[in-house]
Amino acid sequence: MYYDEAADAVLKTLNTSENGLSSGEAKNRLEKYGKNELKEEEKTSVVKLFLSQFKSFLIIILIAAALVSAFLGELIDAFVILFTVFLAGVLGFVQEYRAEESIKLLKALTSPEALVIRDGKEVKIPSSLLVPGDILVLQAGDRIPADARLLEALSLEIDESSLTGESIPVGKCTDIFPTETPQPDRKNMVYTGTSVTYGRGKAVVTATGMNTAFGKLAGLLGEIERERTPLQEKLDQFGRWLGTATLIVVAFVAILGIFQGFDPFEMFLWGVALAVAAIPEALPAVVTVGLALGVRRMVKRHALIRRLPSVETLGSTNIICTDKTGTLTQNKMTVEKVYVNGTLLSVTGEGYKPAGDFFNGDKPVSEDVHLHRLLIAGALCNDAGLFEENGVWDITGDPTEGALVVVAAKEGIWKTALEEKHRRKGEVPFSSERKMMTTLNFSEDGTYAYSKGAPEVILSSCTKIFLGGREEELTSERKQEILNVVNDMANLTLRVMGFAYRKVSEDTLAEDAEKEMVFAGLMGMRDLPREEVKTAIATCTSAGIRTVMITGDHKTTAFAIAKELGIFREGDLVLTGVELDALDNKEFEEIVEKVSVYARVYPEHKLRVVEALKKKGYIVAMTGDGVNDAPALKAADMGIAMGITGTDVSKEASSMILTDDNFASIVSAVEEGRNILKNIKNFIAYGLTCHIGLVLIVLVGVLAWQTLPVIAVQILWINLITDGLPPMALSLEAPDRGLMKQKPAKAKEGLVSKRMIIASLGLGLLIAIQSLGVLYWALGNGTPLPKIQTLIFTLVVVSLMFNAFNWRSERYSVFSLGIFTNKSLIYAVLSTILLQLAAIYVPFMQVAFRTVPLSLSDWAMIIPLASTTLIAMEFTKYLEWRRHR
């Protein structure tokens, strides 16, 4: 259907036109056909997600223990255990639900867009809002968002491997095909999930969502699997190691307690409670929330992470390979120099405003036939547009092409009027491999081919030159003279483009016109570096990250800009694509670490650079925007696509998208990535202190005094309130001021460093010493056991709240950070303290947790003792600061 009908008939059937649907009609059709989305498998319901919190083996044992307690008549114990388990389940559910919602939001942010004609104008809309009858505008690099019938196809080629398995791109056309034509041979149709590799076109949407060819392939449908991050895998390993060690200790103490006369069931219950407290089951959920919240912060800094595992990679990145145009520069081109008729002219004017003059030295130039021919070539071999809105001039399309339209308008040559007289009848689109573009334009004077591209490529297609008002032979001497001018312009950091033309017969194909052309001249345009980039590159250098520039520009231009920005340093190398091709892999790997600039390169060179650097052990980030950049983006440890100029294919191959195409945003993302990892490691260290402290307190209490310093329900309560809000608040901590002066984390580095383990052990030991000191003193004074247990119960909670401030930063004092700068942590600590006060002062909770009220003198002992947890760490940090200073 549709492929066997003429384009006009298809438009009529779908009740649309080449001007597209109106916004109102599109809205009506969206209600009728639904969103352009594939149905996913049913997600885990809220109820199932909640119930999944109670699947843990230890939690099941705890629930069984509560039932046994109830059977033995210990109803209060049974209720408290079940209530605590329920609250722990609620906390775990909230964390996992927030993680799911955050990931869902990230998926929404990365949803693809489509360029369509609505209300007669080209607009970008989310692909999910496409409806049958919409007119798609297709360009190289676009991912096809719906099934559609082609209305226009100019050198259009589509990669349909995702649908047919055929790796060779399929040439498309607008011809009508017989009804019996099989799907792969319907060359006037394009299908969801395929991509444009070359050319451009227009198509009318015929099917969306589940009605597409892709949607009918049931085997390709289903839920996008939630990725487990390497960090979560490390957490699982860490949890298993800690859990195994704890279970061994707990089992030993429980058996010892039974031999020393404790009630076997009490010791069993206590052992399970301590095991639950010691094994960090909630950590993976907390980490996912921490990652997701951090990624959402990145969005505000113009970096959109597509996959959570990429955050960990960001923290380890030590080389950034970046494009120049638009990433290091503003991507706002202005033509400053024109070379015609053997003369170099200057052009005045700023931005996209079509106001300016041409000068030969101090003399103004106007109505020059050579200049006129060159500007016509630049305006016709061009897909950009120039428009004015509210007194402001702007362009549509590529900035380089836009600059050519603007400079032509300065001479009174308006592209829209020009195209009416010189109708385009064919073209060979620009590609990074060819480095040139050609159009065929028909006028009353005949058919002309116009080409633009890299000067050396244009020169190679020319045999003549327009000089002195006539076409003359382009000798090797004249070619060298032109190349010398190219080099001089490149030294001025101008991007240089060559132009040519040729009169051809009406039946000539655009592909055949690119030979024996006439050289028309050169244009040199400037794209100023972004102001913030130089600072960002300096930040990278201090952070132990090398910046490498990769560009299609002339070697001299690339070198000059790299030196200006601080990318090129003394002793570095500049390599062109031709020079790179001349090196074998071994030779290239020997010098790759010295190369800071690659000029006149092709996309396949990017892949070679990535592979060579990875072999040397570097963690490589690579930027890209074109369809041919996809292999390099996939191969890089961190593929970074451009959000503004990037194609759909490059975005899909990437790990991260820059929403402003700015290099400085990469550096911001690296900083945020490092900070996320830092915060995760810090709240793991915080939790480790708690687990070590509790195990030591009970172990020594049973061995030395045959006394349980805290009972099972108190252990469960400590675990619940201290592993809940404080770790979440620590994940919101801002970056340390010296974070970007540290070297990148090693990819194979453990979850927590030896330094952090030693600190956690030391603090856990200190909390144990505090509590055991109180136990020794209280037993000596004949204090009742419930009062002793209440004192230790409260002391541990308060000590851990002081400890939470320790782990805002592994290196810096909480006082230098500012006590109130992380308000979330203040609220988390206050909430935890209030819950603890409720446990010891609210009557029914006193019964449940077997606590007694504490006096002011008790608090006068608890607070100073607990504060030593913070004081000890602050003193350690001070000594380290003195040593480093």
> Which class do the helix and strand fractions yield?
alpha+beta
Distance between the termini: 77 Å
Number of strands: 28
**CATH class assignment of the largest domain:** Mainly Alpha
Helix content: 40-55%
- Give the percentage of residues in beta strands: 15-25%
Fourth-level CATH superfamily of the largest domain: Calcium-transporting ATPase, transmembrane domain
Number of helices: 31
Q: Which spans of ≥5 residues are poorly predicted at pLDDT below 50?
A: 218-227
Supply the key terms.
Rossmann fold, eight-stranded mixed beta sheet, 885 residues, Calcium-transporting ATPase, cytoplasmic transduction domain A, eleven-stranded mixed beta sheet, 4 domains, Calcium-transporting ATPase, transmembrane domain, 48% helix, alpha+beta, elongated, 31 helices
Question: Helix and strand layout, with pairings?
Answer:
Blueprint: H1 7-13, H2 23-33, H3 46-51, H4 57-71, H5 75-109, E1 113-118, E2 121-126, E3 135-139, E4 147-159, H6 161-164, E5 170-171, E6 189-190, E7 195-207, H7 230-259, H8 264-278, H9 283-300, E8 303-305, H10 309-316, E9 319-323, E10 334-340, E11 343-347, E12 358-360, E13 363-365, H11 369-380, E14 385-389, E15 392-396, H12 399-410, H13 415-421, E16 423-428, E17 436-443, E18 446-453, H14 455-460, E19 462-467, E20 470-473, H15 476-491, E21 495-504, E22 517-526, H16 533-542, E23 546-550, H17 555-565, E24 573-576, H18 577-581, H19 585-591, E25 595-599, H20 603-615, E26 620-624, H21 630-635, E27 638-642, H22 648-653, E28 656-658, H23 663-705, H24 712-722, H25 725-730, H26 754-780, H27 785-806, H28 814-817, H29 823-841, H30 843-849, H31 856-884
Parallel strand pairs: 9-23, 9-26, 19-22, 23-25, 24-25, 26-27, 27-28
Antiparallel strand pairs: 1-2, 1-3, 3-7, 4-5, 4-6, 4-7, 8-28, 10-11, 10-22, 11-12, 12-13, 14-15, 16-17, 17-18, 18-21, 19-20, 21-22
Helix pairs in contact: 4-5, 4-8, 5-9, 5-24, 7-8, 7-9, 7-23, 8-24, 9-23, 10-23, 11-12, 15-17, 16-23, 23-26, 23-27, 24-27, 26-27, 26-31, 27-29, 27-31, 29-30
Keywords: ATP-binding, Calcium, Calcium transport, Ion transport, Membrane, Nucleotide-binding, Translocase, Transmembrane, Transmembrane helix, Transport
Enzyme class: translocase
Membrane topology: Multi-pass membrane protein
